[in-house]
Recover the amino acids of this structure.
């Protein structure tokens, strides 16, 4: 059967609704008698709570409930540790409300429910908390010093985890290497900043004993499971739905944010729906952040620029808690080798607590750091040996015939870091052509003669995607011929309703708009993990495919019986099922679905039509024969990947820097990208554009600035600079497609790709532009003032 | 982030507004465009007990050419000035400065007078007014006061307005017909408050030397700074490269020592001021040659 | 003087307003501190206008007030007495048709999560009204008051170009 929809740039099913303003985000949902919540947050990064007085707040007109930790009963327990690991010897997770101590500015201390958010905020001002401020561990550097103050009293040296992995024999490799260099790299925090902040709406139905929650989350099903456990409810009496979600980028995959417990708690307690919507200031100080790491790197190479060994020792900032385990630094460690043949590699990391917002994955999830280190290494080798930077990379690439390539490390899913397919040189070739790379040095020299500083940068990455454990899909043909599909993942803009529909439409001969997807609703589909780590399209999409194939097979079987033809002669097209070369012997898919459901009662247009057709009559025996697998045309399938699949890509850019002001302008930006077989190229390109923009923001505009008291001093959009349309350049996107042998449709993930190589890319381009000044970028993010300082420093040194 | 409670009134007559402000003094605040005040209310960084909304004071809705200056009433929107053909023809420097204010959505509501009264030293209009040696007219129950710009801006978000006083008019002096002008900013993003910005006006003599110059900077101190000693230094020169370089070096002093924030160190601001001085003077000079 | 004081308008915490939204007339009594964005969303249940920051930077709350694009999070509902507002819900013509701007966004994949989209469409509507044939640089400049975290702006710019082209056709 020829594929029609897979690979096509089909317009999105989601759009008309969203374009009309008919989206259904959590704050759009209005329930009768709904109340509104606000959270009192710690103004101190570290303090003992001596006393909380909520009397005045409780007495305020319009206030229904004020909760502190001591009101929570057995709900007051630390949130689950989402991803335990043997090396995480000192995990700590957060209480829903702080009890004795606060550990970051923004930590939840009290929860108010009132008639309106306005009144709830008035009540917050009436809560009197007596704090005893304590010394603050405001950075990694402070956390790691001898006799540092402790974020958690019992956690010695602020060390949550320490993990060593070794591949090959790095010691010998270093000992025998012609060249060894040492560098230190630092990467500082950024934040996801989706346009929609977090939000929770909870309703307790006392008649049905049912808790329903609408949450702006990337993982509704695990949350359903967790809430059922916390509130001692059967799972089928808890329903969690992620409605339309206005961007997630990793920051919304958590269990639990305190509000996800407190809001249902309040709803159950008050027997009224309670809604809590995070405002932007809260988003800055209580939604998880990421990106803080300090690396000490040694790298060994030979005279040809072949990388022989890497030793990377790094510190990872986990903030005040470890809600997501040590996934991010593990990904950093495993992603570092990139597209290169690295046979000898020593990786060691230490995870440290600081008095800052907790860390969990943010788009890229540790990969941008790894790519920063490795791509700096490649540029460093080129600089040291006076070789071309692209050539050094080419010499080190894993070749297409060397797949599968085992990096030699255990990946975040517990499986091997084993690259399934790729063609890195092909990507680089495309990039160089699009950048006009070979002509650039001439252009650069001409510009320098005019006193202008142009630079070109390259940055390659390999991205682990599509990890398990699994996702599932349920597909059912309805009586009108439309397809109902459900899965446990959810969208925050990735257009699953369109892409999954494309996969299904190919199998069942319908149009994508005839497939109606329900996702992110624990009642519609009971099993699922969530949308993160560039996995949903591959894993859930594969499950969709497997379920659709099953429905197709069943439909063939039933049709072959009805038409008295061979199953091999049954075809699907235009919503019909028919016998090859005998199109008059046809049923619509809906009619077939009705036939497959041998009720005594039938109804509707299709049923009446069926009655009037002359089809093979009923056979003796049970209406549902053995092997029929239930009534109707329905199937549920799960897909569990053997291990992750590895996408890759390379970005390049040409910039101009004004050394007087440190300001950068973009002259060209190219992204070449390989995510295997692509369901909808328009969607994938959109993901790349968005990722690049976030990467540019994270590399050159956004920086979270904490002072020594652990206060975030730029906690607003005025001073935390998200790039606008005027700052982001046009992005030229091209593709390489190396299908994955691991999944039925050969897909790999694409969601995070755009952001991963960008910090390294900036470093590469800036070094090149400012080469006459001898600049070497070793930190991210940068901004013009910092570039100015770096230039001044090199000028003073000379 | 919702505003705290307050009482609200929207008078239709200036006299009424003044009476209300006179009555409630320190507890009252004027609401004009709201583009600066409402974010503060939303963040609960301001909590006036009384808000006097002056948007209905139609008597303050005017852009009037007067003898020596352009008079702009307190309720005139920034967009109105940006699109006014009168302003574009007779005081294009003002239109240019206004175009740099935030974004179109901000300028549709924000007022000229409101930006001046808010007195953010990183904003365009206070600096422009300082550059041109313009005036602020304030009224209260006690009568009218006219203050020069440098008298009016006393510090970060602080003005010489007294309790019960309200800004009713801004006066931007005309430029000499042969004067050249320029307005420039360094900002991280389109529409941001400037890291530093400069307004320059240069008037030539008949033999193409500088007769006089006005040069003012935003984002460099608690209030806009007029660099008179640079201005004086330019008089009689042809604003050639060495002169511009010297002006640039001297202008660095306008950055006060406490002007460090998340975007810029003092040293970096000084470097920006230096570069901006050259560019803005060059541009103004080129304009007056045309 | 005494007479003057007696006839002075009074301060209040609740106000009756009369406002037209998408052509429909509403009369409501509202708290004076109620933000226009909250009034539109929760009083009138027109939830297409979104709230992203409440400090006037992100533009998700952009609506048209008497035809001009403004940030509804920076206005009090009481300030709109006697005015006409257009929100995203007022943009599409009939149930089945999309406004040309909306249609262009669809064709060019100019939205992903859709949260910033209504604000952007209102801004584009105002932009194209004033400047029917903008260059790419002008488009990007005029859009800089609306943040998007999903699309990287590229397809939004393409959508605006297409919309401009179509709106100029007779």
């Amino acid at each position: 059967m020829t594929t029609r929809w897979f690979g096509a740039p089909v317009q999105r099913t989601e759009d008309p609704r969203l374009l009309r303003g008919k989206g259904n985000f959590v704050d759009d949902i209005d329930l009768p008698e709904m109340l509104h919540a606000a959270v009192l947050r710690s103004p101190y990064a570290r303090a003992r709570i001596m006393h909380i007085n909520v009397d005045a707040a409780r007495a305020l007109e319009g206030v229904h409930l004020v909760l502190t930790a001591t009101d929570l009963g057995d709900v007051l327990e630390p949130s689950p540790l989402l991803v335990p690991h043997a090396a995480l010897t000192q995990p700590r997770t957060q209480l829903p409300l702080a009890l004795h101590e606060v550990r970051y500015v923004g930590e939840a201390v009290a929860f108010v429910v009132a008639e309106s958010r306005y009144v709830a905020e008035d009540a917050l001002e009436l809560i009197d908390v007596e704090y005893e401020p304590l010394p603050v561990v405001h950075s990694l550097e402070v956390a790691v010093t001898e006799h540092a103050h402790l974020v958690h009293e019992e956690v010695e040296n602020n060390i949550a985890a320490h993990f060593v992995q070794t591949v090959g024999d790095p010691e010998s490799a270093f000992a025998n290497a012609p060249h060894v260099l040492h560098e230190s790299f630092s990467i500082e925090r950024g934040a996801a900043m989706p346009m929609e902040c977090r939000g929770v709406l909870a309703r307790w139905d006392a008649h049905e004993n049912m808790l329903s929650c609408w949450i702006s989350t990337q993982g509704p099903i695990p949350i359903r499971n967790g809430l059922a456990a916390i509130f001692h409810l059967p799972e089928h009496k808890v329903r969690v739905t992620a409605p339309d979600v206005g961007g997630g980028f990793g920051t919304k995959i958590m269990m639990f944010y305190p509000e996800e417990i407190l809001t249902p708690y309040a709803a159950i307690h008050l027997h009224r729906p309670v809604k809590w919507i995070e405002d932007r200031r809260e988003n800055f100080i209580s939604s998880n952040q990421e990106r803080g790491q300090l690396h000490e790197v040694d790298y060994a190479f030979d005279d040809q620029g072949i990388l022989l060994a890497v030793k990377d020792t790094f510190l990872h900032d986990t903030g005040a808690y470890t809600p997501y385990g040590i996934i991010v630094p593990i990904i950093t460690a495993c992603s570092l080798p990139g597209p290169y043949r690295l046979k000898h590699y020593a990786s060691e990391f230490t995870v440290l607590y600081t008095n800052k917002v907790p860390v969990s994955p943010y788009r890229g999830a540790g990969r941008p750091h790894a790519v920063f280190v490795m791509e700096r290494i490649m540029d460093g080798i080129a600089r040291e040996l006076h070789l071309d930077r692209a050539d050094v990379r080419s010499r080190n690439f894993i070749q297409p015939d060397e797949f599968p390539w085992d990096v030699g490390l255990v990946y975040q899913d517990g499986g091997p870091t084993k690259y399934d397919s790729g063609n890195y040189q092909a990507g680089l070739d495309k990039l160089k052509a699009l950048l006009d790379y070979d002509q650039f040095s001439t252009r650069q020299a001409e510009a320098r003669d005019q006193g202008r500083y142009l630079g070109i940068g390259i940055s390659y990455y390999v991205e682990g995607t599509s990890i398990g454990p699994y996702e599932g899909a349920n597909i059912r043909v309805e009586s009108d011929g439309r397809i109902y599909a459900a899965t446990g993942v959810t969208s925050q803009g990735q257009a699953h309703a369109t892409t999954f529909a494309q996969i299904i439409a190919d199998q069942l001969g319908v149009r994508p708009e005839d497939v109606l997807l329900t996702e992110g609703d624990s009642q519609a589909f009971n099993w699922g993990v969530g949308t993160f780590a560039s996995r949903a399209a591959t894993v859930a999409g594969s499950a969709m495919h497997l379920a659709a194939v099953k429905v197709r097979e069943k439909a063939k079987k039933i049709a072959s019986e009805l038409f008295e033809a061979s199953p091999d002669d049954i075809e699907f097209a235009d919503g019909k099922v028919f016998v090859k070369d005998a199109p008059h012997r046809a049923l619509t898919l809906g009619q077939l679905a009705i036939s497959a459901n041998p009720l005594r009662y039938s109804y509707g247009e299709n049923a009446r039509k069926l009655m009037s057709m002359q089809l093979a009559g009923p056979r003796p025996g049970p209406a549902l024969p053995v092997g029929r697998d239930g009534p109707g045309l329905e199937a549920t399938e799960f897909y569990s990947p053997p291990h992750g699949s590895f996408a890759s890509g390379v970005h390049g850019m040409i910039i101009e820097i004004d050394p007087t002001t440190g300001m950068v302008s973009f002259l060209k930006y190219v992204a070449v990208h390989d995510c295997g077989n692509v369901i909808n190229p328009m969607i994938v390109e959109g993901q790349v554009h968005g990722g690049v923009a976030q990467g540019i923001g994270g590399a050159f505009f956004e920086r979270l600035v904490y002072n020594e008291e652990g206060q975030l001093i730029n906690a607003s959009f005025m001073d935390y600079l998200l790039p606008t349309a005027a700052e982001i350049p046009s992005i030229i996107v091209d593709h390489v497609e190396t299908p994955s042998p691991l999944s039925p449709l050969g897909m790999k993930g694409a969601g995070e790709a755009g952001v991963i190589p960008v910090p390294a890319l900036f470093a590469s381009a800036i070094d090149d532009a400012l080469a006459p000044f001898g600049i070497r970028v070793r930190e991210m993010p940068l901004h013009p003032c910092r570039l100015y300082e770096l230039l001044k420093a090199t000028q003073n040194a000379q | 982030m919702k505003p705290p409670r307050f009482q609200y009134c929207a008078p239709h007559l200036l006299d009424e507004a003044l009476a209300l402000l006179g009555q409630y003094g320190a507890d009252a605040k004027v609401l004009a465009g709201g583009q600066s005040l409402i974010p503060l209310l939303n963040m609960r960084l301001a909590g006036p007990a009384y808000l006097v909304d002056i948007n209905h004071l139609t008597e303050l809705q005017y852009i009037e050419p007067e003898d020596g200056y352009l008079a702009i009433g307190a309720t005139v929107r920034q967009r109105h000035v940006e699109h006014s053909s009168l302003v574009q023809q007779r005081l294009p420097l003002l239109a240019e400065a206004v175009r740099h204010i935030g974004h179109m959505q901000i300028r549709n509501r924000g007022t000229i007078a409101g930006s001046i009264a808010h007195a953010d030293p990183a904003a365009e209009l206070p600096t422009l007014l300082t550059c041109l040696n313009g005036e602020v007219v304030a009224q209260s129950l006690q009568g009218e006061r006219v203050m020069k710009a440098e008298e009016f801006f006393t510090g970060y978000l602080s003005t010489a307005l007294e309790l019960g006083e309200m800004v009713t008019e801004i006066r931007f002096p005309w430029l000499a017909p042969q004067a050249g002008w320029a307005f420039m900013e360094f900002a991280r993003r389109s529409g941001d408050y400037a890291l530093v910005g400069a307004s320059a006006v240069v008037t030539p003599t008949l033999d193409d030397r500088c007769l006089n110059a006005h040069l003012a900077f935003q984002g460099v101190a608690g209030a806009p700074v007029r660099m008179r000693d640079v201005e004086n230094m330019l008089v009689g020169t042809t604003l050639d490269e060495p002169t511009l370089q010297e002006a640039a070096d001297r202008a660095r002093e306008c950055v006060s020592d406490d002007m460090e924030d998340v975007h810029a160190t003092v040293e970096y601001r000084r470097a920006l001021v230096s570069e901006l001085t050259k560019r803005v003077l060059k541009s103004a000079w080129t304009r007056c040659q045309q | 003087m005494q007479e003057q004081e007696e006839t002075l308008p009074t301060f209040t915490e609740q106000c009756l307003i009369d406002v037209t939204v998408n052509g429909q007339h509403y009369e409501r009594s509202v708290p004076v501190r109620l933000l226009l964005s909250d009034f539109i969303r929760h009083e009138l249940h027109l939830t297409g206008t979104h709230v992203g920051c409440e400090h006037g930077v992100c533009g998700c709350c952009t609506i048209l007030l008497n035809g001009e694009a403004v940030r509804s999070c920076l206005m009090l509902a009481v300030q709109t007495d006697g005015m006409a507002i257009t929100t995203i819900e007022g943009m599409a013509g009939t149930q089945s048709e999309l406004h040309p701007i909306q249609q262009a966004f669809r064709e060019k994949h100019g939205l992903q999560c859709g949260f910033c989209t209504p604000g952007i469409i209102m801004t584009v509507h105002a932009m194209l009204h004033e400047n029917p044939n903008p260059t790419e640089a002008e488009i990007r400049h005029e859009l800089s008051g609306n943040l998007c975290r999903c699309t990287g702006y590229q397809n939004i710019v393409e959508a605006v170009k297409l919309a401009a082209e179509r709106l100029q056709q007779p």
Q: What stands out?
A: Chain B has twelve helices and 14 strands. The longest strand of chain B covers residues 196-204.
